[in-house]
Design the sequence.
């Protein structure tokens, strides 16, 4: 078994879609990034790459590569899944916490879990996603950005 952690932050700006967990969430601002800036998917990818001692998302999918411009991060998650399988591992479980003052994410959490479980080829019961405000404290609380922390456990494939 291997354990990994992931952490990602993206800035909230005007004229961008808010995409979290592969879901387009209606909001007056969205996350800024070279890709679609899916802060949850990026943190999950980093946790898996971390568990495998394969570095990080920027090493595998550099923001200097124009082919990743505005890319759907679910495609990058699928590539990370393939790397994990090549290394002989499968998902044990993934636990995530998204820090966002707004918008309310609870209505979207179940769909996000389904998306992650589908791409990671695991049961939905192995994916947990939580949301928290930061009680208006810090950059998330001031709605300057959204952060996500993830811990994953990988199991050897039999
Ligand atoms: N963006 C968010 C933040 C929180 N939630 C849900 O509200 C609950 C209470 O939040 P606290 O920050 O006061 O702990 C939290 O447990 C989430 O269920 C949310 O949906 N969207
Ligand atoms: C995903 C990549 C690549 O498009 O771009 P961003 O959307 O800027 O995301 P970040 O979390 O900074 O991680 C790595 C990048 O290489």
Sequence:
């Amino acid at each position: 078994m291997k354990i990994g952690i992931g952490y990602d932050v993206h800035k909230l700006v005007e004229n961008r879609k808010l995409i979290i967990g592969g879901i387009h969430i209606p909001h007056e601002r969205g996350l800024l990034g070279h890709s679609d800036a899916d802060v949850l998917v990026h943190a999950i990818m980093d946790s898996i790459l971390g568990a495998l001692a394969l570095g990080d998302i920027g090493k595998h999918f550099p923001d200097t590569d124009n082919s990743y411009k505005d890319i759907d991060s679910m495609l990058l998650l699928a590539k990370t899944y393939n790397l994990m399988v090549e290394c002989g591992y499968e998902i044990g479980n993934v636990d995530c916490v998204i820090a966002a003052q707004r918008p309310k994410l609870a209505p979207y959490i179940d769909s996000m879990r389904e998306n992650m479980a589908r791409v990671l080829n695991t049961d939905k019961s192995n994916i947990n996603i939580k949301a928290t405000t930061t009680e208006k404290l810090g950059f998330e609380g001031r709605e300057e950005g959204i952060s996500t922390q993830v811990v994953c456990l990988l199991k050897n494939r039999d």
In short: The radius of gyration is 15 Å. The chain has one domain: 2-156. The chain has a mean pLDDT of 98.
